[in-house]
Amino acid sequence: MKSHTFSDEKLWEKVKHFAAAAGKEVIEKVLWLYFALQKPETPKWAKTVIVGALSYFILPFDSVPDLLPAVGYTDDVGVLVAALATVSAYITDDIKQHTTQKLRTWFPSWY
């Protein structure tokens, strides 16, 4: 799935630099969507929704600047939650477990 704004590299760069500011809830939802995107059984329409949400997350400019403490990621959460509601059938228990394992490895202080 190609997008002018989405790429694995851009996503991981954003997660790496802004995970602490974004918090566990945001990064967890990002990973749920990312891992669903990687699954071949996720249909193309759902992958399009996921790429749109992840693209919004990695955009350097959005409606609420991400650098503002406490409120900077509220718009990102809204977009991620809307995408999750749309593609929830493809967010499996396997994806949630894989996400938890990654988060524990990358951010042990969150657990």
Report on the structure:
There is one protein chain. The chain has 111 residues and is mostly helical. The chain has one domain (8-110). Helix content is 66%, strand content 0%. The chain is globular, with a radius of gyration of 13 Å. It starts with 7 loop residues before the first helix and ends in a 5-residue tail after the last helix. The mean pLDDT is 86.
In short:
The chain has 111 residues and is mostly helical. It is 66% helix and 0% strand. The protein has one domain (8-110).
How large is the radius of gyration?
Answer: 13 Å
Pairing-aware structural class of the strands and helices?
mainly alpha
Quote the beta fraction.
under 5%
Strand tally is 0
Q: How many independent structural domains?
A: 1
Summarize the main sheet. Answer: none
Query: What's the pLDDT, averaged over the residues?
Result: 86
- Net shape: globular
Give the proportion of residues in helices.
Answer: 55-70%
The count of helical stretches stands at 5
SSE ordering: HHHHH
Low-confidence runs? none
N- to C-terminal distance: 33 Å
